[in-house]
Amino acid sequence: MARPWGGIEAIVTLLDRLLNKSPVKAAARRLHEQAVAQGRLPTLYLDLGAPDTVEGRFEMLTLHVILLVDRLKDEPAAAAVRQALFDTYVRDLDGALREMGVGDLAVGKKMRKLGEAFYGRAKAYDAAFRALPDTAPLADVASRTALDGADGAPMAGYIQAVRESLSAQPAAALIDGDVIWPGA
Question: Is the Cα dihedral 81, 133, 45, 54 positive or negative?
């Protein structure tokens, strides 16, 4: 017997559209949530030297978002998800600033600085990725941005392992919001 409205899937799709939850935004939200979880792994702080501070957590989240964006940059079908991931990242930072008590008038200025920080780091990591297999530039970027000057070699090894893991994953899965992070 045919379902009058196409079944539960059709109802969910309709509700998603009515509530403005596109599949692209949902996938980006899932990627972002997984980047947040990966960026909070205790081993990043205890074993790899990331400072367990607000700034250190910003750096770890930013690193993992950059790694996802880097993986998706050469996938034409991923452009919308890549942009939605960045938009989700920015909205999340805005919300975090507000939760920390930053006033409405100051949020804009702080968001501008955080946006500049993201693009600066993305550019620096991109240059370091292009220099691979020479890991010295990657260790240097990690030391300068994520580790407050500490030795970046262990973090560079972790970053390389994540890049290799992401590159082995099907683009379609990532575009759907499914990522498998390697252990740190």
Answer: negative
Residue 50 DSSP SS3: coil
CB 29 within 8 A of CB 88: yes
If one counts every other C-beta atom within 10 angstroms of the C-beta of residue 72, the result is 21
Tell me the pTM: 0.84
pLDDT in tens, 139-177: 999 999 999 999 999 999 999 999 999 999 999 999 999
Query: Of how many residues is the chain composed?
Result: 184
Show Cβ contacts of residue 58 under 8 Å, excluding neighbours closer than 6 positions.
93, 114, 117
Sequence ranges of the domains in the chain: 22-175
Which parts of 132-152 fold into alpha helices (H)?
136-145
Taking only the tens place, the pLDDT of each residue in 96-132 is: 777 777 666 676 777 788 888 889 999 999 999 999 9
Domain with residues 22-175, CATH architecture = Orthogonal Bundle (1.10)
CB 62 within 8 A of CB 85: no
Residue-wise over 25-41: b if at least 16 C-beta within 10 A, else e? bebbbbbbebbbebbeb
